[in-house]
Amino acid sequence: MMSTNKNNLSREEQLLRDKINEADFAYQEADWNAIESKVSGGSWAKYKTLFKTAAAFVVLSGAVYFLNKETKTDSSQNSDRITATEKTEKKEQSVTVKKQEEKAATINKESKVQPSSSIEYSKEEPIDNGEIAESSEKTALPKNEEFIEDKLPAEIEETEISTSENEVENINFDINIEGKLCLGEELRLSAQNNNGQTNSSTLIYRWFINNKRIIQSNAEFNYIFDDAGEYQISLKVRNESGQIVSESSKQIKLDKAEEIDFTYEDLSGIFTDFTAQLKPNPAHLEYKWFVEGKEIQLDENNQYDFRQKGIYSLALVYKNESGCVSEIEKPLQIEDDFGPFQNVINPQSEIEKSRVFMPHGFEDHKGFFEFTIFDLSGSVVFKSNSPLKKWDGSLNNSGQKLAEGNYVWTINVANEKGQKRNITDRVKLLYLK
C-alpha cells in the first residue's frame, strides 16, 4: 500500500488527494442503459471501453504523482542529514587540527625559553592559578601570603609526563643554610649542586617550607621565619622543559631566646650617690650590661657607679645555649641625691647648731676623712680629719674672727673598699644677733 506523508503536502495537493480517494466508480446500470440507447451499435462498445480506460488512467496518474513526490521528499531529507553530518565532522576535524597546531607551536616556543634564576623568572614562565614570582631577592615575610600552589604551565606538565626518566640528567642539588637558627634572624638559603655551583640560568627552582611552596624561584635568597619550631625545607629543581632534575630537603629547628626586662634604683649614700642598683628579670640568667654601647661589670650587689649625674642609655643582653639573643635597652637617670649641706654659719646665733658648721651625712663615716675650708683667695682657714670636729667661723678655730662673706669647702673621703668621694660647695659666714 502506498505510504503517505501528509506533512510534506501543500494545502492544494492534500485537497486533490482527498478528492481522488473519495471518488467512487460504482456501476450504475440505468446510467449506462441511457447512454447505450443514444449510441448505436458498435459505437457504444467503443465509447464504453474508452471511458473505462480514461478513468483508470486518471486514478493511476494520481497515484504515480503522489508516490513520486514522497520519494523525492525522503531523498531530500536523507541528503540534508548526510550533508549536515559531513559539515559537523569537517568542523570538528578543523578544530582538532587547529588545537594540535597551537599546542605544537606553544611547546616549540616554551622549548626555546631559558628561564633565568634571577627574580625576573615570572616574565619568562607563565604562572597558573595566581602563582607569583618574587620581585625582590630578600623575602620580607608577608604573613599568611607567602605560600602558593606548585603547578607548572600545562604545556610543560605534559612534556614532563611524556618524557622518560632515563632522558633526565640528575644534578643533585643540596640545600645550604647560612645564619643563626634563631627566631628573628635572617637566614640565607641557597641551592648548591655537586659542582659547587649555586645558580644556573637554565634551571627553575621551586622552594617549599613544610610542604607549602613559597614565592621564590631563585637559587638563593634571604628569609626570616615568623615563629620558632621545626621546619622542613624542600627544593625541586627543574630544567627548561619542566623535568625534575633534583629533589632535596633539610630539617631545621628554630630556637627562641627568653624575653627579658630590667628595672633600676638610684641610690643616695656618700659613696652610692651616683650608683644604681640594676635588677634584671628573670634574675637567674647570665646577662651582659652595656652603657652607651660599652660593656660594664656590676659588683656583687648588681650595682654600678656612674660617677656623676646624668641620663644614660643602658642595655641588657642575654644569649642562650643555641646562640639566640634577647636584648632590651632603656634610658636611666642618675640624680645628685647626697646634698644635706648647711650653707650658712652665724657664730653669734642663739641656735647652737647654727654657730658651727659641718656638712651633714658624715657623722657615721669610718675611713679616710679630710675637711678643708678656703677663703676666696685660696688660703686655708680651717682643716679637720674628723667629722666630729666642726668649724666655729674663726681662723683654725682659734677665735680670730674672719671677715663676713663666702667661703669654699671640700671633703675627701674613702672607705675600706677603696671607694673615694670628693665633695665641694660654698658656705656663707655672717655675724647676726
Describe this entry's structure for a reader:
- The chain contains five helices and 20 strands.
- The protein is of the alpha+beta class and 433 residues long.
- It has four domains: 7-101, no CATH class; 121-254, Immunoglobulins (Immunoglobulin-like), CATH 2.60.40.10; 261-334, Immunoglobulin-like (Sandwich), CATH 2.60.40; 344-429, Immunoglobulin-like.
- A hairpin with a 5-residue loop joins strand 14 and strand 15 (325-334).
- Mean pLDDT is 75; it is low at 1-6, 107-145 and 147-167.
Any idea of the CATH class of the largest domain? Answer: Mainly Beta
Structural class: alpha+beta
N- and C-termini, Cα separation: 163 Å
* CATH superfamily membership of the largest domain: Immunoglobulins
The shape, in one word, is: rod-shaped
Spans of 5+ residues with little confidence (pLDDT < 50)?
1-6, 107-145, 147-167
The overall number of domains is 4
Q: In what range is the share of β-strand residues?
A: 25-35%
What strand order characterises the main sheet? 1-5-4-7-8
| Rg over CA atoms | 58 Å
Could you describe the largest sheet, including whether it forms a barrel? Answer: 5 strands, antiparallel
Average pLDDT metric: 75
CATH topology of the largest domain: Immunoglobulin-like
DSSP, total strands: 20
Q: What order do the helices and strands follow? A: HHHHEHEEEEEEEEEEEEEEEEEEE
* Fraction of residues in H or I helices: 10-25%
Counting H and I runs of at least 4 residues, what is the number of helices?
A: 5
Which architecture of the largest domain would the CATH scheme give at its second level?
Sandwich
